[in-house]
Amino acid sequence: MDALTDAELTILGLLVEHPRHGYELEHVIEERGVRNWTALGFSSIYYVLDKLAKRGLIEAIGPRTSAKSRVPFAATEAGREQCAAATREALAEPSPVRARVLVAMANSAALPDAEVAAGLAERRAALRGRLAELRAIRAAQEPLPTAARGIFDYSEAMLEAEIAWADTTLTTYDQETAMEKYDVKQARKDLYAPSAKHFAVVEVPELRYLAVDGHGDPNADTAYSDAVEALYSTAYTLKFASKADGRDFTVGPLEGLWRADDLSAFVQRRKEDWDWTMLISLPEWITDDQVRAAVAKAAEKKDNPALAKLRVLTLHEGASVQILHRGPYDDEAPTLDRLHNTYMPANGLAFNGDHHEIYLNDPRRTEPAKLKTVLRQPVRPV
Predict the structure, then answer these.
(1) Residue ranges of the GyrI-like small molecule binding domain (predicted)?
(2) Average pLDDT over residues 214-238
(3) pLDDT tens across 345-364, in order?
(4) Could you tell me which CATH number the domain at 6-176 has?
(5) 268: number of CA atoms within 13 Å, CB side?
(6) Using an 8 Å Cβ cutoff, are 249 and 185 in contact?
(7) By CB count within 10 A, which of 28, 326, 346, 354 is most buried?
(8) Among 38-52, 133-147, 366-380, whose mean pLDDT is lowest?
(9) What is the rounded distance in angstroms from the CA atom of residue 152 to the CA atom of residue 164?
(10) Per-position DSSP letters for 314-368, written without gaps between them
(11) Helix (H) or strand (E) holding 375
């Protein structure tokens, strides 16, 4: 026997109570505030009636009229039995939590915090309005029988709980908004937002990073993907721990130091010859002890061999030439060729450290043509 939906059980129960036609059902549903706890529109009443009738759970009684809405229906014996069985089951079984707002919260990272807070505030206002409406409906029907009182009590409790949840969540967002959040891209725009038209010389101070070393083609070697995962899992563990201590920060973009015995390997994209050190910047207040604790916590969640290789790297690049590259990573070669073989010789500059790239987009979510990469080369006078 097919299970009854909430709408079907509601209509069937009203017909078990006593025979009714469509308009009577609509009146009772509206009067009792049924729509505060089940999705049952006026037009769907007749759809549900047809379904119940085809299953033999209700039947039309009395004289037929030309208006379908005036045809009275009553529950059959089979309908009474299934209604009773479904009611026993529904009374005893806790309902799963399937509120759509949970899906929204799971995806809220895609929105600025201010937009999430605004949406929650709008939801809270709507919930308060619904609660006021429900209480008005209840007051108009007092005194209520025990079952009806239980329905209203439950509906009010659920709305009050949702309002309390919205209050708590909004308070958390307000506190986080008030908390200063460090973002290296904003704090050091000179280093993370260069021109895409011209090479520029910048002075890069001493900075600290989470770092993992490796060798080979990043597109083919699992050691590279392990390294990136280890960096992000550790960085986010640090973020949440620091936030709990009252200092929040935005996890910086993935960065990489690239080197090869023959520098033409970069221009020619011979990736199998590359050595690399993948990086994520650290706020200055994060200590080595905090990093070790974060690595240990990340290792508890997932066994990743790169976590054992993760270290804190202090890097002082000093004078560096950089430019913003737009487009696929494999299209960097002409820009690097100009840097190595035209700009640097013309300005009397020599290499003074590893080629440095900063990946401002997530390649998993960004079209190759829209990727933005900072290309940086530490230099010294010849």
Answers:
(1) 201-379
(2) 91
(3) 999 999 999 999 999 998 87
(4) 1.10.10.10
(5) 9
(6) no
(7) 354
(8) 38-52
(9) 18
(10) EEEEEEEEEEEEES-GGG-HHHHHHIIIIIHHHTTEEE-S-EEEEE-S-TTTS-G
(11) strand 372-381
